[in-house]
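ugh ok fine here u go
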Amino acid sequence: MLVLAGDVGGTSTRLAYFQAEASGLTVLAEGRYQSREHSSLIEIVLRFSEQHRLAPERACFGIAGPILEGRVRTPNLPWNIESVELAELLGLPRVRLVNDLEANTYGIAALQREDLVTLNAGEPDPTGTIAVVSAGTGLGESLAYWDGGTHRPLPSEAGHADFAPRTELEADLLLYLQGKHGRVSYERVLSGPGLLDIYRFLRDKHYFEEDPAIIAAMNAGDPPAVIAGAGLDGSCPMCSKALDIFVAVYGAEAGNAALRFLATGGVYLGGGIAPKIIDRLRGAPFMVAFAAKGRLSSLVQSIPVHVILNERTALLGAGRAAYLSQS
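structure:
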């Protein structure tokens, strides 16, 4: 079956034609476009379609944003996307739209061993529920249940659940973030902007002196990336401490997801941040925070934890979602 798949993000949009079979996906054509250089997803799909002249039997697009009745207004782009318009363009009876994290979750089944780094081998149940916790520009969480033949994702907005501090330092961080944001969700901590706010908290509360070289680097580039890089190489003590806090909270929330969804099939860390800080995630603090669940610690310790390295996971997932959808 020929399917068209898309991974639509605020920065870039990936499209691909796949030959989809029960055994997997084969790429026939693939393209990547800078989202902000185009006025709509329709414009990109039309360009891709005219270039390759293939006629898909099904189509699915994973989109960063809430999908309601086949429509979404993308939060990071001035786009209104409607499945009906895409179906009309492609000459299909329907086009499926899914949240980008749901697409990521579909894509896990298409990954190879080299696409994952295992933080905790655990005792995996192949038919158990899996959870995905993805920190990037924001924080997304989803689960997938076993339907007897494959894992079927269910979206959630668990990343917007209330942030629960576990230490005095995290409690101080919560108070600091409440002064800035009011209500504080886990996304306010576990995201690129969240890492920057952790750094600002340590600075403003005078835990460390700020390094002029770090100030200059952040002014010239991407502040969260600067903090992560300087934290990893140890050149900035405040950056290193910010990263330590981030990793510990990430571990705690991944453990929360393991409990919420009883994810005996494994917890997968997606998004753009985890692969970049893999060396810090391999350290003890992440798994200590993950497993510190009181009377249920032994259960959580048995749950596998993996980091997703393949940045095309959502695109592969959109292809699988198209194939698995009803015609």
